[in-house]
Known about the structure:
alpha+beta, Glutaredoxin, Glutathione S-transferase Yfyf (Class Pi), Chain A, domain 2, four-stranded mixed beta sheet, globular
Amino acid sequence: MTSLVLYTNPMSRGRIARWMLEEVGVPYEVKVVAYGPQMKSPDYLAINPMGKVPALQHGENVVTECAAIIAYLADVFPEANLAPKTDAERAAYYRWMFFAAGPLEAAVTNRSLGVVIPDDKRGMVGYGSYEKVVDTIETALSKTPYAAGDRFTGADVYVGSHLMWGMQFGSIDKRPALEAYVARLASRPAHLRATELDDALAAAQQTA
């Protein structure tokens, strides 16, 4: 089997990629990249010119951006059953994964930075308003137990991670449908394993 290498830091979005790898259930190697000079070193910039984590190397292939890593792993390891199987699943899978990568992340980031979009300028930003974005994802997750329908897929790793972090740190409003959705995901064995592994890495970094 071609080797999988995850370049990550336990205090980063690399946790999303780790969770997906645990869901896929294939062996992988972890290379921790420290913030600062190491993340901007020529060696790591050859992997990801942005100088950010995570990055996934699969043989000669390199994938960056969490949504792309998730979609790639779901496609390359179909036996994990994390990719959509029907057109209906596929439509919802891509819709909500990229909704989280685009409107949701942009709206939450701007709100956290105190960026206020004037009412007459909302047409210039893809998400319109923070309130509309959260209303939209809440409505969607009120109708089905998972992002793509009745079955857990890779889209839930990505959408769920954004909602978990956002509600934990107060950047996304806690709403009943969102809390129920996150609770379903948080108890998954792969999520628990990934969290334990990254928490241990973070603790080791602090004591080093």
